[in-house]
Amino acid sequence: MNMWEKIIPKPKSRFLQVRCPDCGNEQIIFSHAASIVHCNICGAILAEPRGGKAKIKGEIVRVLE
Question: Model's pTM, two decimal places?
Answer without folding.
Answer: 0.80
